[in-house]
Amino acid sequence: MFEPVLLKNINTPESYKIDTYIKNGGYEALKKALEMNPDSIIQTVKDSGLRGRGGAGFPTGLKWSFITKDPTIAKYLCCNADEGEPGTFKDRAIIEYDPHELIEGMAIACYAIGAANSYIYIRGEFALGAQRLEDAISEANAKGYLGKNILGSKFSLNMYVHRGAGAYICGEETALLESIEGRRALPRIKPPFPAQVGLFGKPTVINNVETLACVPHIINNGAAWFAAIGPAKSPGPKIYGISGNVNKPGLYELPMGTPLREIIYDHAGGMRAGKTLKAVIPGGVSAPMLIEPDLDIPMDFESLAAKGSMLGSGAIVVIDDSYCIVKAALRTHEFFHHESCGKCTPCREGLDWLVKVLRRVEGGEGEQGDIDLILKLCVDIFGRTFCPLGDGAVMALRGAINHFRNEFEYHVTHKRCMVGGR
Amino acid sequence: MLSENSVKEISELTSKYATKRSAIMPALSVVQREHGYVTEEGMRDVARILGVRPVLVFEVATFYTMYNKKPVGKYHIQVCTNIACSLLGAEHLMDFLSRRLGIKTKETTSDKKFTLSAVECLGSCGTAPMMQINDNYYENLTESKVEEILNGLR
Ligand code: FES
C-alpha cells in the first residue's frame, strides 16, 4: 500500500492551521533548506526527477536553474493555482486543506532561485481557498517562516495572493503574468521565456501547486527517495483526480505510473452497476480520449504521450455507455470556445466555426460531410494557434472522432443520438 | 462614489505589486463587493485611485467573466455544466432550478433574489454535480438537496 505524501494531512482536523502543520513535521524542510546553499537545493530537485504537475511535465530543477544568479536582479516566483482544466480538482484540495505545504514549498523555491517576492495566482472562484491562503500566509509571517530574515537567516520573502476572475487562459503561464500585471490575460510570445523576461519584466519561475507541494518532501526525504517512486523518467507521488461515471470519484494519491485500470477499478470503485466503460479522458479535457483496450497504460508523461494522449494534470474523466460521445465532444469543445482569449485568429474563429458544426451534428441537423469538415478545420487550426489552448481543443476533438466516428456518423444520418434514443 | 473604506483598501492594494496597474483586478473585486457589480462609476473610481487611464480598467473588467457587468440577484446560483458534472446530471439540475425559480439561465427573479447561471468547471469535479451560490460550493447535489438549500436561503 502506497502511503500518501502530498495529501497525508488533509483529513486531520484543522489541517490548514499552522499549528497542525508544524505538529506534523511542517517547516522542518524549510529549516533544512536554509542551511543548504541555493545551488545544492536546485541540484537536489534536479536529482529527484520532479517534473511539473500542471500539465507540461517540464523538469522543475532545470526550470529553476535557468534563473540568473545575479543578485542585483529582482526575481519572482509565481505559483499557478488557476486550476481550470475541466476534470481537474487536485490543487484545490492542497490549497484548502494543506496551504502550508504549498507555502513551505514556495519558500524553499524562492530561496533556491533568489526571489524576494512571490505570488499565488488562484482562480477567482476559489473563495475559500483564497481565504485559507491569506490566513496561512499571515500565520507564516507571524511565526517567522515568511517575511524579513526568515528563521534568523539573511533570506527575506513576501508572499501575496492574486485572485483571478474567471478566465481559463490564465493557466497558461505568460497569460498568468499578464493578469498579475493588471491586463487582459493574453498569452505572450515566447521567447523570451519567463525565466529571462517574466513578471514585471524580471526573471520568473512559474510552478503548479502540486509541483511546489512536492518540494518540502524532497528536501526532507532526499532526492533518491523521490526518484525511487514510480517510473524513472517521471517519478514521484501523483494526485489523480477521478470523476464522471465511477462509483467512487475523488482524489487518489498514488505513485506516478499507476495503471489506469487500477485507478479506475481498484481505487475509484469501478463502473456503476449495469454500465460499461465507453471512454476515458486521462488528463483533463485537452487530453485525447482512450478506450477500454488502452486501460493498462501506466499513468505517466511518457506512456500517455506514446499513446497519442497526455497525462496533463492527471485528471481522469470516465464516461460510460449511457452518455453520448458527440455530446461529450460538444460540451468540451464549447468550453474551449468560450475560453479562447481571442488573441489569434485560428483559435478565435476556428473554434467558433467548429462549435457551430458540432452543435448542428449533435442536435440532429448535421449534413453529410460535416465530420470531414470538422476534421479539416482541425488540420487548419492545429499548430497554428498562438498558445496551446487551440491545440488542446483540436486534439480532444480529433481523439473523440478517432474512436467514435460511428457515433458522429449516426447523428448525421439518423438525425438523432445512438445512445438514449433522443 | 466608493465608500471611504473601499478607497483606502484599493490604495493599500498597490503595496503588493511593482506597478499600480497590477491592483486593477483586486480593486474591481472591491467595487463589485460594494455595488454588487462593476459599475461604470466604480471603474472610473478605480482608475482615479490607482492613477491609471480608465480604459485600462475597462479592458480588464470586460475580459474576465467574474466581474458582473450588470446587477445580479442577492444569491447568484452558478451551476457547473461542464463534462464531469454533465455526466452526473448537471443539465437535469439546471432544468430543476429553472423550473423551481421560474427563470431561465442568465435571468434574475423579479424579487431580485436569485440569478441563475451556467458556468464552466469550478474544480469540484469529484463531487459532481455541483453549484456555487455566492462564495459557497454545494456538492454531490440531488433535487432534494437543492430544494433544502433553496429553502435555507429564503
Ligand atoms: S466539471 Fe463540474 S466542477 Fe469540474
Could you walk me through the main structural features you see in this protein, from its secondary elements to its overall organization?
- The complex is a heterodimer of chains A (about 425) and B (about 150).
- Chain A has about 425 residues and is of the alpha/beta class.
- Helix content of chain A is about 45%, strand content about 10%.
- Chain A contains 16 helices and eight strands.
- Chain B is an alpha+beta fold and about 150 residues long.
- Chain B is about 45% helix and about 10% strand.
- Chain B has seven helices and four strands, in the order ααααβααβββα.
- The longest helix of chain B has 12 residues.
- At the A-B interface, β3, β5, β8 and α13 of A face α2, α4 and α5 of B.
- FE2/S2 (inorganic) cluster binds next to α5 of chain B.
Chain pair forming the biggest interface: A-B, 54 and 41 residues
Helix proportion of chain A: 40-55%
What overall form of chain A do the CA principal axes indicate? globular
Structural classification of chain A: alpha/beta
Query: What is the CA-based Rg of chain B, rounded?
Result: 18 Å
- So what's the oligomer here? heterodimer
How are the strands ordered across the major sheet of chain B?
Answer: 2-1-3-4
Number of helical segments with 4 or more residues of chain B? 7
> How many DSSP E strands of chain B?
4
What is the overall number of helices of chain A? Answer: 16
Order of helices and strands of chain A: HHHHEHHEHEHEHHEEHEHEHHHH
For the largest beta-sheet of chain A, the strand count, sense and barrel status come to: 4 strands, parallel
Based on CA inertia axes, which overall geometry of chain B fits? elongated
Task: Assess the beta-strand content of chain A as a share of residues.
Answer: 5-15%
By helix and strand content of chain B, what is the structural category? Answer: alpha+beta
Low-confidence stretches of chain A: none
Share of helix among residues of chain B? 40-55%
Poorly predicted regions of chain B: none
